[in-house]
Every structure is written in C-alpha cells, then in structure tokens.
Amino acid sequence: MAIPIMSFFTGGGFFDIGFKQAGFSICWTNENCPSFITGYEHGMSSWLSSAGKNGLVTAHISNPGSIWDLVARHVLKEAFSGLRPQTFGVIGGPPCPDFSTGGTHAGGNGSNGQLTTVFVDMIYALQPTFFVIENVPGLYRFRKHRKFLEQKIAQLRDRNYVVDCAILNALEFGVPQDRERLFVVGFQRPVAERAVGRKLTRKENGWFPWPVIDKYTRAKLLPWPKTGPFGEKPEKPKGIPIELTVYSALLGNGDPEPIANGDEFFNPYSRKFGEVQEGDVSGKSFKRLHRYRFSPTAWYGNQEVHLHPWKPRRLSVREALRIQSVPDEYVLPDNMSLSAKFKMICNGVPCVLAFHVASAVKDFFGEAHL
User: Fold this and answer.
1) What angle, 0 to 180 degrees and rounded to 10, lies between the N-to-C axes of helices 34-50 and 338-347?
2) Is residue 223 part of a domain?
3) Would the pLDDT of 225 be above 60?
4) Phi, psi of 175 (to 5 degrees)
5) From 96, 165, 346, 351, active-site residue
6) What is the DSSP string of 321-358?
7) Between β-strands 286-288 and 180-188, what pairing exists: parallel, antiparallel or unpaired?
8) How many domains is the chain built from?
9) For the domain that residue 155 is a member of, what is the CATH number?
C-alpha cells in the first residue's frame, strides 16, 4: 500500500509529481497563492488523467489557507478523516528569497524566512513518520542562515527525529539545468535505526543514503561549449551527454511549439533578442542558452530573461516546463497569466530530482522493514 504524503507549499505540484512517480500517495495539499492553485489544479488534473487508468481525474488543493492559520489536529482530520495512519510523511519547500544568493538575506526573521519556522512547528505538531524539507542552498552555505537552520533541526531532534541534509544538483540527476537545492530529511528515530541497523547519535549526519547517479556526478567538468554567433548551427561536442543539454529539452521529446503551452511566450521587444550570442549567459538579464549546454537555474523574473538558443525570443512555457523536467502531459490553463505561469514553474523542484529523492526515501523504508 502506498505511503500517504501531506504536501505543504505545494505550488505547481512538481515535488508531488516526483513522489507520486516513486510510488507514494499525495493525500493532502496546501497552497495559498490563487494563481498557483489554478495552475496546480489544471496541470495535475491533466497529468493524472493522461495515465488513462482512471479516466478523467480532477485534482484539487485540499486546503487553500495560509500555513499561519492551520492547526495540526484539523489538518490531520482533513487528510485522514480522523484515522491517523501508522506511517505517513510530510514534504514541502517554504518560500526561500530570504536565504538565497540574490535575495534579501533577511534570514529567519524575514517575512518568507518565518514560514520555515512555521513549517517546522507544523512538522513538530503533526509528528509524521518522516519529512522532507526543500530550500535554497544558501540556507546551509551562509553562516548566519546555517545557524537558523541548525536551530530548526535541533527543534526536530527534540521530537525524537534523526535529521540529515544534503545539497543536490539537478544536473547530476539527468536534468539539463544547473539547479542546486538543499534537502533536509528526517525520520522518527526507531525507523531510521532499523534501516541503518545501529544506534544513531543525536547530531549524527551522513546516515541517510542520498541518491547518486555515477555517470553524472562530475557533469559540470565535462568539455561544455562556450559561446557562438547567434543564428549558426554549432556541432555537438564529443563527450557531452545529450540528455544534459538544452537541446534535449527543446527538441528531444519532439517540437514543443505545436503542443499545449508550446506557443506561449512573451513577445520580443528589444534588439537584444537577435544580438546576444548563443551560450552567452554572462549578463544579469538577457541570457541566451546554448543548445549543447545545460541551462542556468531556471529563474525568469527580477529582470532575468532566458533566450531561446536559435530563435529571437524568450523561452516558452512548455520549454521552461521541460527544463524543469515536468511531463508534457502537465498542461497549464489559458486563464493563468504568463507571468504567473513562469513564476510558478521557476519556484518548483525539477520533477526528476524530486523523484530520485523520493525513491531514496522509499528505499530507506524498505531497509527499515527488512
């Protein structure tokens, strides 16, 4: 029987997709942003319906309230009708601008940073069998933010969880994007100790078997091409896995323009759309992707614009979804603004990375029950 998952800060549901693909069941979701709710409900409905096993499936956000207003016992009742299961998990990625390199660095006291505290408090109250928290690597790498993170981890350890964390790069899991994310995993101590076969100390790290794909572990050191004139057709360099290139996302699964969300992009308005060299991502704003190189972190906002490698325009919604490894069957609705679509897409965890993290969690449960 699939282990149920409660999803907080659900966004477009990309994290959820990875967990569902790994065999978990998403039993409850929470998203407070109206446009993200619109995107989630349409996108997840189309993706779930595409499986063809259960006909038309309609997905809904279980609770659209702010996490500030949620009460643990009410959440448990909504998710499980009052019958708390023996095993269940909690996942979520609180908003991260207060910890990011390009953010405010307001930390745990910032308006977004405070949501991490509220989320940890919710986990503390819900007492799931395990949890997975996702955030930007700055929460760990910057000393002042790491102190805040360590305080939150100590709080969870007080609840008899053992906790481990790692920074994983989506590129090293076959996603054509240089996107690092911090993952914090916690298990109730008896479950974790059964899985590892020994006692774990309170502050022990490195006990969780984080996923690794050996052939991609040194991906950034490959002989990636530099820049070239816009409008030409460069040759693919030898030794570059095609699946790690933008080309694989733009054309590897067929031309995206004829399919849903494939022709949705902001109209070009500047000469720069035809002037920036292919592969030149050095600017703060106009970054033209190279077809035979991975994409920088997908973040199309705050004046950052990612350009199509060989077309004088920005990336389309479908192209951005593909760079985030979202299935083509996931379709965003017409009544959602372009800005909201791109914001939601960029906020998500690449589905493939989420799948590998979820699979590691599932395998760990298998070890716990041997």
Assistant:
1) 70
2) no
3) yes
4) -95, 130
5) 96
6) HHHTT--TT----TTS-HHHHHHHHHHSPPHHHHHHHH
7) unpaired
8) 1
9) 3.40.50.150
**Catalytic annotation present for 96:** yes
Rg (CA), the chain: 21
Compute the distance between CA of residue 364 and CA of residue 121 in angstroms, rounded to an integer.
25
Residue 110 has what pLDDT? 61
Residue 65 falls inside a structural domain: yes
Q: Is the pTM above the cut of 0.90? A: yes
Burial class (CB within 10 angstroms; exposed 0-12, middle 13-18, buried 19+) of 131: buried
The boundaries of the domain holding residue 25 are: 4-217+350-368
More confident residue, 342 or 100: 342
Q: Which residues of the chain form beta strands (DSSP E)?
A: 4-8, 25-29, 89-92, 130-135, 161-169, 180-188, 286-288, 305-307
DSSP bridge partners of 261: none
Q: Which are the contacts of 197, defined by CB distance < 8 A and separation ≥ 6? A: none
Query: 162 lies in a domain?
Result: yes
Question: Per the domain annotation, does 323 fall within a domain?
Answer: no
Report in angstroms the alpha-carbon separations of 193 from 127, 152, 196, 204, 284: 17, 21, 5, 12, 47
Minimum mean pLDDT range among 82-91, 101-110, 198-207: 101-110
